[in-house]
Design goal:
The chain is an alpha+beta fold. The chain has five helices and ten strands; from the N terminus they run ααββββαβββαββαβ. It has two domains: about 55-130, 2-Layer Sandwich (wza like fold), CATH 3.30.1950; about 135-215, Outer membrane lipoprotein wza domain like (Outer membrane lipoprotein wza fold like, Roll). The strands form three sheets. A five-stranded mixed sheet has the order 7-6-10-8-9, covered by helices on one side. Strands 2-1-5 form a three-stranded antiparallel sheet, covered by helices on one side. The N and C termini lie far apart (about 105 Å).
Length: about 220
Amino acid sequence: MRVCTKTNKMGIILKQLLKFISFFLIITASAFADLPPTDPVKATAPLQEQKADTANYLLAPGDLIEISVWKEEALQQQQTLVAPDGNITFPLAGTIMAAGKPMFALEATIASRLADYIADPVVNVKLLQNNGNSIFVIGKVNKPGQYPANRRIDALQALSLAGGLTVFADSDSIHILRRVGKEIIVFPFDYDDVVDGEHLEQNIILEAGDTVAVP
């Protein structure tokens, strides 16, 4: 009789334990079910946008890049600065115009040059420092200075980067200065018109080296 009693007690304990485990599993499953599902598209969107910006980035004088050729030890991690004339020099490939090109175009140019020496060269170009693509905002703005232009920036966005106009700014007499060769081209910009949605053709996309001058 004692053995039977002990067996019954063990059975009751086991049943209670199983009930507790089942209850715990149900609560845990409900908690996870209430969590919002992760959207893989949204999760990777910022990374994709960043990669897209880098892929479309146009190299400029002053940029520091790293060039490597797959399986070629002598051509690994070659750092080079885009010269003021826009050129770079790479072993076996010689002098190449890099300014104004996206990195994938420079990779293709280098690969075509190396094809005479290496079978099916695989070239990778990485941007280390984008010192070249900068615009300048001067005059009566809250934060005048040099700003990197690693994406397409228009005149209004440049003024926003500079903290906007001061209360003393002549908002309808702003000028954008662009050097082309030995000449300087001047583009007028009426801040009030653009903000009001008028004469939006004034809100041009800035190029590397452009200066927005606010009198």
